[in-house]
Design goal:
The structure holds 3 protein chains of 3 kinds.
Chain A lengths: L4 E11 L5 E12 L4 E5 L6 H9 L7 E3 L2 E4 L2 E2 L5 H7 L4 E4 L13 H13 L3 H14 L5 H4 L9 H13 L5 E5 L7 H17 L3 E6 L2 H7 L2 E6 L2 E7 H6 L4 H9 L57 E3 L17 H4 L6
Parallel strand pairs in A: 3-9, 3-10, 7-8, 8-9
Antiparallel strand pairs in A: 1-2, 1-4, 1-5, 5-6, 10-11, 11-12
Chain B lengths: L6 H5 L12 H19 L1 H23 L32 H37 L1 H16 L2 H12 L3 H28 L2 H8 L4 H37 L10 H8 L8 H28 L8
Chain C lengths: L2 H33 L4 H9 L4 H11 L5 H13 L5 E2 L4 E2 H36 L4 H14 L3 H15 L22 H39 L2 H8 L4 H23 L1 H15 L4 H11 L2 H29 L7
Antiparallel strand pairs in C: 1-2
Helix pairs in contact in C: 1-13, 2-3, 5-6, 5-8, 5-11, 5-13, 6-8, 7-8, 7-11, 8-10, 8-11, 9-10, 10-13, 11-12, 12-13
The chains are: A alpha/beta, B mainly alpha, C mainly alpha.
């Protein structure tokens, strides 16, 4: 059977001042099977939100989206007219955003904003849509849904607003729900509740979840599969278990070493967490692997051409020959004492 | 922007007066001013406004040269249409007065009233706004109430009442327009002063023991000026419109010719000699448009927030 | 809290806050009345034509004009409390009654002009925001700036030249056809309404033009600002068509700043009505003010000033409640 979503060779470009384009996302492939949770992981600026917006067709007109193919639920999305894309949006393909505080319209009631989707895609009457909205609020565990349905967003807490956003997104039982950093703006205690809710809805409504996050703790707990993005390139992809037990790409290793939750046994007093030296911005305008400036394992050949995705095992891919033990010509670029996370003070 | 002094300067210990922290502002201001001026001069619509205004000013200043006699005097056959006779290129009115002479002399009155009334309004507004914003407390409350009262009264009707009571003359019209326009400026200046009052460089100046007058005049007001400058060009425009409306209603200075009074007189002959109404009105539109174009250009140049908007 | 309850409380609170302003306006009016040359006794004496110093003094005593200023103010206030604004010898009528007669005409003209300006301004703003930076935006921007620079009374006269004198389509003044639109006696129903509308077109347009420009510029800025909000992205993610996103999600939020400005400009529209009414002989407050100026009848002039100020305050009160209704985040307290 076809996967639910398969993206081949996606690039996203914006015009730069010099009349050309710069490409924050390049040559990106992604498959999502029905019902699974795929996590898209990377630092801010890695292009994960751009990818999500491109899939939704929500990028500004100035953005250039190129792809060899985007198939969703048996339908090719590239070249699809805007009207047809619009009909998919909110019905089969839904999205929730990072900021529940600003993502809801302040002057419309929660109920109206949920009912709006139902009336649009399912042609429900105002009354039926309202009744359905109350059920949806109940489904996302908002207490007193009968009363809350007539509340305006400002009367709800951040967590409740994100629940309302989720109710709106799942109103038409989408096949794929994209969640862009759904818990980043929330309190830690609320984060787990919202993620639990998303996972329950995934099972109950049998939808696939594309979870965009920079939080590896979230990934370890909820994702089936993980895609690691660095500077607009996929650098590693694996099932969650193998990725955490045996990270291959130097960037993934660095991320794991820098994550507080992955180091649960350590106390902050034991010493600072390891950081990956440098920043993602240093990759701009690089010919080869974008991670070279920060990579402890880089050799001269890494800087010349982007390494291809290698498949060291079933259901795994990594864009680093060094990591899988392939010999590469050239001497090490970054001396270990200066760049390696292992030697960080 | 000079509105925010650099934290490094604010953190520095008090220095001798020659290098006081507030000096960061005057030092930055010319550079900012030059940049704003460059931005203003690169703006084609602003240049168009400047050119139009310059033409009107030129016409006004040449009036005594071209038409040294009283423009209210009768010089030719009445109701001569424009373009019929070389000696009166824009025709004559019902009393045989030269329209071109009236327009050029009228420009003097319009510009004089426009700029003078704006000066009166600005002075009153800045005074009240600066005192209210700087002092705060009960005085601020009282002045804000006063501003509210003046803003609730329809300004043109108040203007009519004031001029009618004081008897129309150029001086009373200027004063009355100033009286009805100051609240806008006062409100603006008060808000700016309140925002600037607690800024680092003002606090530093206070710490050095400068008097309130010096702090207001030297430290706060120069930084509060950009929005005031933008508003003042629009104020000149609206003062010209007010003067024209007053003169049209017969409340202009009876001893001078003005565009508004020309329209008022031409109105009686609207059906037969509409040029008497159209020509002075067109000049009002051109002058006011020029000032509004300049205002827009100043706003774009002095208000960097709006840059990405255009 | 329910919406009606919230709005009522908001209304009461704002009304309470307006009381000192109203008092201030009354005092301002009183002071201006004191400054005005001649008092009621002068006027009456002039009317009767036979005035000696003694009769003048007697008249002044009778009207309390020889009392100290503070007592006179109290008298003025108590008169106002009885809705008395003095007497106009010229019209031989109480000023309050005169103003009452003319008020509906002005209100009608203002409301029409305001509605026209609001709708047209909003539409132009929508066009500009939708094409921001491209040529329709530029053309409309220049047009708006031009409208912003045209004196209402002059465009009124020019419209008369074009539509009444040259084309003969619309009447040049007045407010209804004397003897009915067809000449066969006063019209009724729809015909009368249409007749009134024909008289309304030119004055309302002249008055509205300036405010069309203001609202168009304001709406453009507000719409562009509202479009950048996250909830607009949410609305698009729902699959709503661009037009629905604009009208349902962007527009309502953009209306907030525009209605605020509409309230602020009410005084300006009243002032504009004064001049436009004189152009079109429209029987309203403005025309009355003009006649009062010509006759130097200050009791009428100040009555108009007082009433129009109160009108502005009342209208601002309404705008305030309207805003609270549009924006649920504004709470009563």
């Amino acid at each position: 059977m076809d996967p639910l979503l398969s993206v081949r060779d996606l690039s996203i470009g914006f015009r730069n001042g010099a009349g050309g384009h710069w490409w924050p996302v390049r040559g990106f492939d992604l498959t999502v099977e029905a019902g699974e949770t795929v996590a898209l992981v990377g630092e801010s600026g890695s292009g994960k939100s751009l990818t999500a917006l491109a899939l939704m067709g929500l990028l500004p007109r100035s953005a250039r989206v190129e792809a060899a193919g985007i198939r969703f639920a048996g339908q090719e999305l590239t070249g699809l007219p805007e009207r047809a894309k619009r009909r998919l949006r909110g019905r089969d393909l839904a999205m929730i955003f990072q900021e529940p505080m600003t993502s809801l319209n302040p002057v419309l009631t929660i109920g109206r904003q949920i009912a709006e989707v139902l009336r649009l895609h399912q042609g429900l009457s105002a009354k039926a849509a309202r009744a359905q909205a109350i059920e949806l609020l109940d489904l996302v565990r908002i207490p007193e849904p009968q009363r809350r349905v007539d509340d305006h967003p400002h009367r709800l807490s951040g967590g409740m607003r994100q629940r309302a956003m989720i109710a709106m997104a799942v109103a038409c039982r989408p096949k794929l729900l994209i969640a862009d950093e759904p818990t980043t703006a929330l309190d830690v205690t609320i984060q787990a509740q919202v993620l639990e809710l998303l996972d329950r809805l995934r099972r109950e409504l049998s939808l696939a979840l594309l979870l965009i996050t920079h939080d590896l703790g979230v990934v370890a707990q909820w994702a089936d599969r993980v895609v690691v993005l660095y500077a607009g390139r996929k650098v590693e992809e694996a099932d969650a278990g193998p990725l955490f037990s045996d990270p291959l790409h130097p960037y993934t290793r660095g991320l794991l070493a820098a994550s507080p939750r992955m180091n649960a046994g350590r106390h902050y007093r034991d010493g600072p967490l390891d950081e990956i030296p440098g920043s993602i911005a240093s990759a701009a305008g690089q010919a080869g692997c974008p991670f070279v400036p920060r990579c402890p394992a880089a050799v001269a050949a890494c800087a010349e051409a982007m390494p291809p995705l290698l498949v060291p095992a079933a259901r795994r891919a990594v864009a680093c020959p060094v990591a899988v033990g392939l010999p590469l010509p050239g001497s090490p670029l970054n001396s270990p004492s200066a760049a390696s996370p292992e030697f960080h003070p | 922007m000079p509105k925010t002094s650099s934290p490094a300067l604010a953190a520095a210990p008090p220095l001798p007066a020659t290098a006081n922290p507030a000096a960061g502002t005057p030092a930055a201001a010319p550079r900012y001013g030059r940049r704003a001026l460059r931005a203003f001069l690169r703006n084609p619509t602003a240049i168009a406004g400047l050119v139009l205004l310059a033409l009107v000013m030129l016409g006004a200043s040449l009036a005594p040269l071209f038409y040294p006699d009283d423009p209210l005097g009768m010089v030719g056959r009445p109701l001569l249409w424009p373009g019929r006779q070389w000696s009166h290129p824009l025709g004559t009115d019902s009393l045989g007065r030269d329209v071109a002479a009236g327009l050029m002399h009228g420009a003097r009155i319009s510009l004089l009233v426009g700029f003078a009334a704006t000066c009166v309004g600005l002075s009153l507004g800045i005074l009240v706004g600066a005192v209210a914003g700087y002092r705060g407390g009960w005085l601020d409350d009282a002045l804000v109430r006063l501003i509210e009262i003046f803003q609730a009264v329809p300004s043109f009707i108040l203007l009519v009442v004031l001029v009618a009571i004081a008897q129309p003359s150029v001086a009373t019209i200027v004063g009355a327009i100033g009286i009805v326009t100051w609240p806008t400026i006062a409100r603006l200046v008060r808000a700016e002063v309140r925002a600037l009052r607690s800024k680092d460089f003002v606090v530093a100046a206070r710490g050095m023991g400068y008097g309130h007058g010096r702090i207001i005049l030297r430290e706060i007001l120069p930084n509060a000026m950009p929005p005031v400058i933008v508003t003042s060009s629009v104020m000149v425009a609206s003062a010209i419109l007010m003067e024209a409306a007053l003169s049209f209603m017969g409340l202009g200075d009876p001893n001078t010719v003005s565009w508004g009074s020309m329209i008022g007189a031409g109105r009686e002959l609207l059906r037969t000699a509409w040029y008497l109404t159209a020509l002075p009105g067109l000049l009002i539109v051109v002058t006011v448009l020029a000032l509004n174009l300049i205002g827009d250009g100043l706003n774009d140049a002095l208000n960097p927030r709006l840059e990405k908007d255009s | 809290m329910t919406t009606p309850g919230r709005l009522t409380r908001r209304f009461l609170r704002t009304a309470l806050q307006a009381i000192p302003t109203v008092l201030g306006i009354v005092i301002l009016n009183f002071l201006l009345l004191q400054l005005a040359p001649g008092d009621a006794a002068d006027v009456m004496a002039a009317e009767s034509g036979t005035a000696t110093e003694e009769t003048l003094a007697a008249l002044r005593a009778r009207f309390g004009l020889d009392q100290p200023l503070l007592l006179q103010l109290l008298g003025y206030l108590s008169n106002l409390a009885h809705f008395s604004l003095g007497y106009s010898p010229r019209y031989n009528m109480p000023v309050a009654e005169l103003i009452g007669q003319r008020l509906p005409g002005t209100l009608l003209l203002m409301a029409t002009a305001l509605a026209l300006a609001f709708v047209v301004g909003l539409l132009l703003g929508l066009v500009m925001a939708a094409t921001a930076g491209r040529w329709p935006d530029r053309v409309v921007s220049v047009l708006a700036l031009l409208f912003y620079s045209i004196p209402g009374f002059w465009i009124g006269l020019m419209l008369i030249v074009l539509f009444s004198v040259t084309l003969g389509w619309l009447p040049s003044g007045g407010y209804q056809t004397i003897g009915g639109p067809s000449g066969g006696g006063p019209a009724e129903g729809l015909a009368a309404l249409l007749d009134r509308l024909r008289y309304m077109v030119l004055p309302a347009t002249s008055l509205a033009l300036f405010y069309v420009a203001i609202y168009a510029r304001l709406a453009r800025a507000a719409l562009l600002e509202a479009q950048t909000h996250d909830y607009v992205r949410t609305a698009r993610a729902k699959g709503l068509p661009a037009w629905t996103v604009m009208t349902r999600h962007v527009l309502r939020n953009a209306l907030l700043p525009v209605t605020t400005m509409a309230g602020i400009h009410l005084g300006g529209i009243l002032g504009g009505a004064v001049v436009v009414e004189t152009v079109y002989s429209w029987p309203g407050l403005g025309r009355l003010a003009y006649e009062a100026v010509m006759a130097r009848d200050f009791s009428i002039l100040l009555g108009v000033l007082l009433l129009s100020s109160l009108l502005v305050i009342a209208a601002n009160l309404l705008v305030d409640v309207l805003q609270a209704w549009l924006d649920p985040r504004i709470e009563a307290s």
